[in-house]
Specification:
- It is a multi-pass membrane protein.
- Belongs to the battenin family.
- Residues 73-87 have a biased composition (Polar residues).
- Its main location: other.
- The protein is an all-alpha fold.
- It has a single domain (23-432), classed as Growth Hormone, Chain: A, CATH 1.20.1250.20.
- The chain has helices at residues 15-18, 23-51, 53-63, 70-74, 96-112, 122-141, 146-170, 178-202, 207-213, 216-228, 242-245, 251-259, 268-299, 312-331, 342-362, 368-396, 402-409, 411-432.
- The radius of gyration is 22 Å and the shape is globular.
Length: 434
């Protein structure tokens, strides 16, 4: 067993000395690295699908009009679409449609799975995530219709949703510091996914080839889980043993404590009570994510500057990449600073959404450079809200409730994202009708 880890997720009294030298420090850093890579691989497909949203929809529009070429698939011409008379350069379908396909399956999983997923071994869940992510890249790559592209995005959503609630639950069996590693890794997924997609397509690769190259990422998820993590109370094969599911490894003592109500599986009433207690964390997180995804999938595709050196599709990709850089830096900040009052971040994010909504409507911003600065700030707020929410849930939740709480709270950001997608579609239609 890793000497730096206790089963309840708290730091062992000997952690300080173990981290100075010897195998304790090695296993500690190994687990931090493992959760960082799991966060990176888990969110990668999700991020890539959002970065590719504009290209996915443009590709299908091209299929429906003329025979596509690599150039028409990859780039849009600066200026208004020839297919509409709007003052905005609009796709017929909002990128929020891709967002909804990317988030609704995740939301369904996060709302329902915490009530039964504990009966499914973690290793099997990981294999499902790997398979779903790989299928998503393949389906979108070879898509010939909008519905087929959205089906591929749905597979990416299933992988990300199942992975997020599973890995957040898994953190409770390790030292609490792995939450910071996970958060930083998910931020890294944003940077890596958006940056690599933007860079590869900018270099001349078609979106199809770019997505096929990214099939290596699901393989790294499997490697990270099965070969890098050092599990407490797990066999070397990665299969769970009974101590992982109990607070006390002594079964007889565990039964006695269960009778006293201190251990054993949570019943439905207890889970509902935990959900009520989580609202103080979940609501601010949902508000932050509603505001930022309202910006990302509802407003950014309409913030097009014809005189800028990037085309419309390129501007959209690099908007997403800039946002992900902000998210990465703030999700990695837990090792330096912690913010308990997440509602402040929610309020600031709503101000951002209001400002950019006005910018779209009145078109008063003079340059895309200003938009890039606002988007970077937006990413900082969103990433800080995410990682601090789960840090304080892990810190303030009882040992017995922690695994369920970490899995359930992950629905907060998905609720906000789903609501933003529903709001962004009529917004897109309204602006494009002007």
């Amino acid at each position: 067993m890793d000497p730096t880890v206790s089963v309840n997720g708290d730091q062992d009294p000997m952690v300080a000395s173990n981290l100075q030298a010897g195998p304790g420090r090695f296993y500690f850093l190994r687990n931090i690295s493992g959760f960082w890579l799991l966060g990176l691989c888990n969110n990668f497909a999700y991020v890539v699908m959002l970065s590719a949203a504009h290209d996915i929809l443009k590709q299908q529009e091209t299929h429906n009009t003329t025979s596509p070429t690599p150039t028409t698939w990859l780039h849009q011409q600066d200026g208004r679409n020839s297919s509409n008379s709007s003052r905005y350069d609009c796709n017929p379908v909002s990128t929020a449609a891709v967002l909804l396909a990317d988030i609704l399956p995740t939301l369904i999983i996060k709302v329902t799975a915490p009530f039964f997923i504990h009966k499914c071994p973690y290793g099997f869940r990981v294999l499902l995530c790997v398979a779903a992510a790989a299928v998503s890249f393949l389906v979108v790559s070879f898509s010939s219709a909008v519905w087929m592209s959205l089906l591929g995005v749905i597979f990416a959503s299933i992988s990300a949703g199942l992975g997020e609630l599973s890995f957040l639950s898994l953190t409770v069996f390790f030292n609490r510091s792995v939450v910071g590693g996970w958060g930083s890794g998910t931020g890294g997924a944003g940077v890596a996914g958006a940056l690599l997609y933007s860079a590869f397509t900018q270099a001349g690769l078609s979106p199809r080839v770019t997505l096929l190259v990214m099939l290596v990422v699901p393989a790294f998820m499997a490697i990270s889980y099965f070969f890098l993590l050092e599990f407490p109370h797990l066999s070397r094969s990665g299969e769970e043993t009974r101590p992982l599911l109990r607070e006390d490894p002594d079964e007889a003592e565990g039964k006695k404590r269960e009778e006293r109500g201190h251990t054993g599986e949570l019943n439905c009433r207890e889970k509902i009570n935990i959900l009520k207690g989580l609202l103080k964390f979940v609501i601010p997180l949902a508000v932050v994510y509603f505001a930022e995804y309202f910006i990302n999938q509802g407003l950014l595709e309409l913030l097009f500057f014809p005189g800028f050196y990037l085309s419309h599709a390129e501007q959209y990709r690099w908007y997403q990449t800039t946002y992900q850089f902000g998210v990465f830096f703030s999700r990695s900040s837990l090792f330096c600073v912690k913010i308990r009052k997440v509602w402040i971040l929610s309020a600031l994010q709503c101000v951002n959404a209001g400002l950019l909504f006005a910018a779209v409507y009145y078109q008063f911003l003079p340059s895309a450079a200003i938009v890039f600065a606002i988007i970077a700030y937006e990413g900082l707020l969103g990433g800080a809200a995410y990682v601090n929410t789960f840090h304080f849930i892990s810190k303030e939740t009882g040992k017995r409730e922690r695994e369920f709480a970490m899995a359930s709270a992950s629905m907060g950001d998905s609720f906000g994202i789903a609501l933003s997608g529903l709001a962004a579609i009529p917004l897109h239609n309204y602006f494009c009708s002007l």
